[in-house]
Every structure is written in C-alpha cells, then in structure tokens.
Amino acid sequence: MGIWDTLYSEIIRFFGLSGIIEIVKKGDYSSLATLGGIQKLIYPIIPLLLLLEIIRAAFYKRFKIEDYSMPFLVFVLNRFISRFISIAAVAFCIGLFERFAIFKTTFTWYWLIYGYIVWEFSHFIYHYLAHKVRILWCLHSTHHAPQHMNLFVNFAHFFLEAPYADVIRTSICILMGVNPGLLFFIMFIDGFWGSFIHLGENGLKNGRLGFLNKIILTPSHHRVHHAKNPLYMDTNFCNLLNIWDKVFKTYQDERTDIKIEYGITRQMNPHNVLDAYFGEIVCLAKDVYKAPGLKNKILYCLMPPGWSHTGAHKTAKLAREEFLTEEGEKQPLAEPPPIQQEQFS
Ligand SMILES: [Zn+2]
Ligand SMILES: [Zn+2]
C-alpha cells in the first residue's frame, strides 16, 4: 500500500467513516434503521466534533497547536502499539468468566439498566484504582497530563491502560451476569459518551448541558475530574451515570469561584510526549530506589500517589481535606455562588 493509500485509510478510520462509505457504495440505506446502521452513523460524531472544536478555536483565535500536539502524539503512538490488545483482553475475560456468572441476563431494556449500573460500578472500580494505586496511576497519568481540555485528550492514554481497564470492567460485568451482547452495546454507548465528555471550552464553553448536569455526568463534571485544584482532584470517577460517585462521596460540582487548572501536580514539560508517557514511572522508580527496606518499596507501588514512607504524605485526599478545612474556617456559612445559565458559545 502506498503512502497516500495508508494516509487515506487512516483518515477514514479516524473519522469512523468506513461503515457509511460501505452503505453508500451498496446503496442499501435501509440498514441505517438497524442497530448496526445507527452505530455506523454515531461513530463519526466525535471526530467531527473534534474538527469543529479546532475550527471554532481557530475562528476565535484561541487555537494553539501545543494544546493538541501532545495528546495527538500519544494517539499516534497508541495507534501503532495497542491495536488489538484490548479486543483480545475482552474476548479472553468473557471466555474465562462467563461460566461463573451469578445468573444470565438477556438483551432487554430492564437488563440494559441493570447492565449499565454494573458497568458504571466496574468503571468506577477501575478508575478509582487508577488514581489511588500509584503503579496504576503511572499508566493513567498520561491521560491527565494535558493542560488543556479538548476532544483529543480522549485519545491520550498509555497503551497498556485500555487492556487493563477492559480486563477489570469485563470481568466484573460478566461475573455479574451481563451477557456479552449487552456488554458490547453498553461499551459502545460508554465509548461515545466517554469521548464526548472531553469536549473542551473551545467546543462548548459551559459544559453543564443545562438540567442534564443534575442527572448525568457532563463535560463539566469531567473537566473537574481533569483538574489539579485541591478541591477537584480525585473526584467524578464515573462516565455517564454518576450514581457511584454519589454513593462513594467522590462527587464534585464545578464551582464558578474556582477556575479549573488542567493537568497533574508534578512539575512536567506539558508538551513533552515522553514525559507524559513515562514521567510518573521514572518518579516511582526513583522513590522505590530510595525507599528503605522491601516493605516501603512495595508500599510506594501500592499506596496512593503522594504517599511517603516518612509520613509526610502529600496525597490528593489530604490536599482536598486541607482545602475544605481552610475554606470552612474562612467563611463558615458561605454558599458557593450559583453557576451561570448554560451558554452554547
Ligand atoms: Zn482519571
Ligand atoms: Zn478523561
């Protein structure tokens, strides 16, 4: 295949257009009314929104190449490394755990609700561990390294993260009886929404989506998740239904008086893709090397980021508690100012 053919097929693949092209070539538009047809129509929405986000940013002279370059490079790197690992991991877990399922479900609307609640639970577990176990944070921090929010951040992941996330999520769902067909359907909705919530301020200034902000997890909630402000760190782990954040008390609304600062707290070069990819691993390796005794070395890998064998911890949990205590002392009865009306600008 020549370079132009490769480039063409990469662009078609990136924009998810192959399904639509196939339908147009065959002229069989009736398939658009099927579930598969609808999926083919939905696939290109996120890449097209990303394009729109960039065009809008350029139009308002807010486009900065460095906001997009790092997540883009991570995307390119992943594209070549982790093409099929994740699909294989899902298939493996289904084969391994299906026989141990507590019961069998079918593809009906009520099992869809059950399946989605279980899926969100499994996503919460994966995502919570990704933030609270330092060795897993080494993988997840790549996704949090970008210092601006845009749809490309969705593609910035360490290549091993998707297979490990899928192993945890698939195993829990299959054991809880979610049938594979239902699971793939849920994964499809989750994949779409999980991408959409990365829509940055260039695409949608206020990401609260009006009344939806009270019911589901919106881009505004996920912006909070990507923030390094003490109040916002390690909150909003869910993806679409934020029930588990509310159950486990990790829910945090965006506040107008606290402007989101994206990124991670470690000093890093935000435009260096290698730093975003391997920086946390290097830091962990240094801490493990310096730590006295085997027990401390293991604890550095398993305890939350910021844990120290000296007891001088600097974890996200402590930073948040400190912030809330300080704020409580300063203004004991103050209510956070209400957020302004939704503006699609
Ligand atoms: Zn995260
Ligand atoms: Zn994210």
UniProtKB/TrEMBL annotation:
Pfam families: FA_hydroxylase. Its main location: membrane. The keyword Nucleotide-binding does not apply. It comes from the Bacteria. It is found in: Endomembrane system. Signal peptide: none annotated. It comes from Niabella soli DSM 19437. The chain crosses the membrane at residues 41-60, 72-97, 109-129, 172-196. One of its GO terms (biological process) is lipid biosynthetic process. It is a multi-pass membrane protein. GO terms for cellular component: endomembrane system; membrane. This is Fatty acid hydroxylase. Residues 113-250 form the Fatty acid hydroxylase domain. Keywords: Lipid metabolism, Membrane, Oxidoreductase, Transmembrane, Transmembrane helix. Residues 324-345 are annotated as: Disordered. Coiled coil: none annotated. One of its GO terms (molecular function) is iron ion binding.
